[in-house]
Amino acid sequence: MIKTDNCSFERMEEFKYLGKTLTYKNYILEEIKRRLNSRNACYHSLQNLLSSSLLSRNLKIKIHRTIILPVVLHGCETFSFTLSEERRLRMFENRLLKRIFGPKWEEVTGEWSKLHEDLNDLYSLPNIVQVIKLRRMRWARHVARMGDESVCRVLVGKPEGKKSLGRP
Q: How many CB atoms lie within 10 A of CB 133?
């Protein structure tokens, strides 16, 4: 409980702010899970379109980029990812792209096979992790242009003092 003047504030483990779930320890994993669940709901509502043979692959990719991806990427500029979270996002995108591109016909064996390494060749656009990193850099440039000295000091500041011994 925090008290200031005549107001008291209760400490929350997590809360929702502007559609984003914030935790007191800044864990992003729960937010990513929530976003991926929202993405699954969006995908399942469009599953008939994405699995239709009447639509071209390019149109399916446009549906993915304009409808499904923004659900996951909303507010991604403020996320701080670990490698496991980046892998989770890449797996989500690869699963959807495999669904869009479908199996591949092997001329040599005469059988259908799943796409693995060929997926990057077929999908020439930046992957989801690259898009997030680009958006974060764009956001950092925007904040730096704001001109507020306290914000710029945080972006380009150097910590003072010595680093303590041992593991951080």
A: 14
